[in-house]
Amino acid sequence: MLDWLLVLAGGLVGAPLRYLLGVDAKFRLHSAFPWGTFAANAGAALFLGFISEAVTDGELGPRLQLLLATGFCGALSTWSTFSYELLTLTSARRLGIAGGYLLLGVGAGVGLSFAGAAVADTIL
After folding, report:
1. φ and ψ at 35, to 5 degrees?
2. To the nearest 10°, the Cα dihedral for 66, 69, 75, 76?
3. Which of 49, 115, 116, 123 is the most exposed place for a label (fewest CB within 10 A)?
C-alpha cells in the first residue's frame, strides 16, 4: 500500500508541473513548436537518468525510486502528448516543425538521460 501511495505522491507533483509548463510555454512563446511538452520530457529524462544511476550505485533506495522515478518522472514526462503533438503538426502540414520536434525530442531525451546519469556518477 505504501508503494502505491509513493507513486501517487510523485504523480501529484509531476502531472500539474507538466500542465503548468505547457500553459506557460504557450503564453510566453506563442510558438507552433510544443516547447512545454519538450521541456517536461527533457527535464524528466535528465532527472530520470540521475535517479537511475543513483539507484544503480545504491545511493537511492527502492521507495525513493518509486516516488521520484515512477511517480514524479512518470507523470512529468508524456509520450502520449508527444505523439499527439507530432500527429497534430503533421496533419496541419507543418512537417518541418514536426520533424524537428521528433528529432529534438528523442535526441534530447536520450542524451539528457545519459547526461543525468553522468552527473550522478560524478557527484555521488
Report:
1. -65, -35
2. 150
3. 123
Provide the H-helix boundaries in the chain: 2-29, 35-56, 62-65, 74-76, 79-91, 95-123
The pLDDT tens digits for 90-99 are 999 999 999 9
Q: Which residue has the cell 527502492?
A: 62
Q: State the pLDDT at residue 45.
A: 98
Tens of pLDDT, residue by residue over 37-96, are 999 999 999 999 999 999 999 999 999 999 999 999 999 999 999 999 999 999 999 999
Contacts of 9 (CB under 8 A, 6+ apart): 67, 71
How many Cβ atoms sit within 10 Å of the Cβ of residue 111? 14
CB of 44 within 8 A of CB of 116? no
